[in-house]
Amino acid sequence: MIVNFEDMMAGGMVAGNGVAPAPADSISGFDKGMKTLESMSLDDLINRLVSGLVDFAIHLAIAILVFYVGKFIITKIYNITSSVFIRRRIDRSLATFVLSLIRIVLYFILVITVVGILGIETSSFLALFASAGVAVGLALSGTLQNFAGGVLILLLKPYKIGDYIEAQGYSGIVKEIQIFSTIINTPDNKQIIIPNGGLSTSSINNYSKEEYRRVDWSVSIAYGDDVDVAKAAILDMLRSDDRIVVKYVEDDRKMRADRKELEETSDNDDAEPEAAVEPVEKKSWIKRVFNSRKKVTVISDRIEAEHAKTLEMLPKADRSPFVALGVLNSSSIDITVRAWTRSEFYWGVFYEMNERFYKELPEKGLHFPFPQMDVHLNHINS
After folding, report:
1. 265-322 tens-digit pLDDT
2. Predicted local confidence at residue 184, as pLDDT
3. Is 172 exposed, middle or buried (0-12, 13-18, 19+ CB in 10 A)?
């Protein structure tokens, strides 16, 4: 078989080198480009270069303009979102996380847009970021679980900073809610760091969630003491304490709100009059649009309002102090005592009432029992 050397060179293969032939399209395109350049005159070449530079300059100017306009818009969106979070008193950790996420996403979109205006292919960038995201997600699966748990906790708010909770075998006051973990302080001031992944999927006992709580006691008196006298004495002690709910929680809440409002009014009357407020400089319509402080009605507010109306329609629960004979033990009569109070008064009411029971019940002729053992000696005559 006879092989033409020129045909081999045109196909891009030299005998014995094992190199695959180059694509015919690329070779033909390159040849056409070279022939076009050879056929062009110097004036045509200069005109084409100038036209290309002018086109690139126009695209570059548009890209710079879009970048600065986009940066201005991102800053305004960031400031407006931050103002909304401040007005709504959103948790600091959630606000910081959401603001950072908004800024990163918006800047990423802006950079991709600017790169596209310059004529650079953006599909490779998107593919690179997607593959990097998948790799990071696989490597940090546990961390991402804690991250998702932190987002759920910050959004659903099963507890907040300052609440006393019990979870994952630990109990204490919530000191800080972070994206990946929650920090609590135990009653003896030990710091416990609990990952949010487990907290978001397990049971949490929040002692501070409800505004009112029930306090329970068990008061023991000796056999032979008058139970009616003991019940009456205990009821008098409970009713004499202003922190105890008399009958209904709703009435107690309204009474305390009216009292607080009256105290604030009297304090304002005693305070010195405030200085005159200086007139505020009138802002342009652009600033008024971006810096508006009008209260926005959110769907969650409407839901809470409807929920409050539904609760008001329910019958009131009687929360009067309860005293009754509970258990007849082997050496004592145990009286069950229950009373309702605000959550912040819980421990104060509990310990102070224990002290009053100990001091005042003996004054009514009542006795506190203690375990006794009767020993009988039989004399055996020898």
Report:
1. 776 666 555 555 455 555 554 455 444 444 444 565 677 677 677 767 778 888 999 9
2. 92
3. buried
Distance CA 303, CA 309 (A): 10
Q: Name the burial class of residue 293, with classes exposed (0-12), middle (13-18) and buried (19+) by CB atoms within 10 angstroms of its CB.
A: exposed
Compute how many other C-beta atoms are within 10 angstroms of the C-beta atom of residue 149: 22
Alpha helices in the chain (DSSP H): 5-11, 24-39, 42-88, 92-117, 123-139, 141-156, 196-201, 227-240, 249-270, 285-290, 299-313, 346-360
Q: In what order do the strands lie in the sheet with 212-221?
A: 212-221, 333-342, 322-328
CA dist 357 and 241 (Å) reads 13
Residue 80 burial by CB count (10 A; 0-12/13-18/19+): exposed, middle or buried? middle
Give the C-alpha separation, 199 to 184, whole Å: 12
Residue in this structure with the two tokens 């960038």, named with its chain if needed = 125
Q: What is the pLDDT of residues 135-186, one digit of tens each?
A: 666 555 567 778 788 888 877 888 888 899 999 889 999 988 877 888 999 9
Neighbours of 271 (CB within 10 A): 8
